[in-house]
Amino acid sequence: MxxxxxxxxxxxxxxxxxxxxxxxxxxxxxxxxxxxKVETDTNHGWGEIYGINGIRNMRIYEQKFxxxxxxxxxxxxxxxxxxxxxxxxxxxxxxxxxIRMALLDIEAKxxxxxxxxxxxxxxNTKYNNNNVIKFSSYSYDGNSKEVIKNLEDGLKIHNHKxxxxxxxxxxxxxxxxxxxxxxxxxGGEYKFGVDMNMSYKYGDAIKFLxxxxxxxxxxxxxxxxxxxxxxxxxxxxxxxxFSTHCVNxxxxxxxxxxxxxxxxxxxTDIFNLNSTKNMWLRSCNELGIxxxxxxxxxxxxxxxxxxxxxxxxxxxxxxxxxxxxxxDDGIILKNDIIGxxxxxxxxxxxxxxKKYTNLFI
Length: 361
Description:
By secondary structure, this protein is an alpha/beta fold. 34% of the residues lie in helices and 25% in strands.
């Protein structure tokens, strides 16, 4: 993947959420992102990355890549895991991957085809045939009444058949009761998973797993901090699916019920893995760009489960116009898209960038 990059611009932004988002990492009512624009001789493309920790690196790449012929894949750091949410400024793949996201957009624009068709041709993928993109509806941690209402409110915005719960804030006994209450309320029509954000101790994780075996949980994400724990869980509980982006790549193949997570915009190696292993996409509080890319990836690849997205949590996206339509059972991309289809509302971009500068500078 080689390009002559003329200019890279980026804007850290802060955008409010519709509701407070509660997890073991804390409670917040806003999201932080960095919006990236890459310009070549032929076109421009947009990228988006988590948080604001990559500002230092973006300044470096802005100078290092401008007016140069760049092989972007050379700069992607190869890890033993899939984690791209690095908070260490010295090692931050997210910045390079955000630039790569924009370059993929440019490649498809140059060919005058949708990004998902470009990805299919580029990687010769086994792809989604039904055109409907499945996303999960997500709830913050809370009591049963709060969580059920939060899920129902989310389903009114984006109707899905896959629900995901945040656990770990109130102890595993209350978590077990929450899972039972949510399953009873929504019934068997919905699949659902849980995410502990690595908050459980090993012993509590085992107790939880023994207690929910009959609750028909489709997927459990990141119970403990120890990377070896997921291997033990997968071995002892073969009927339960476990997923994490912090796992050795070889262990993903070792156990059939360990699934690999690909956080946005982490595209590295996904196409080679997808043909033989159950992968899924996830993203967090995205502002429209990475969500749209997730839609294209979901069309370019045949994923085994719903992709996770918190797009519906934001009060505003930064898109001039959404590139997709909502369907009863998911989302479908519009027919006339060229590239990713993303164009940014610059007035909103500058407004939320000013929010960031007022708060941090």
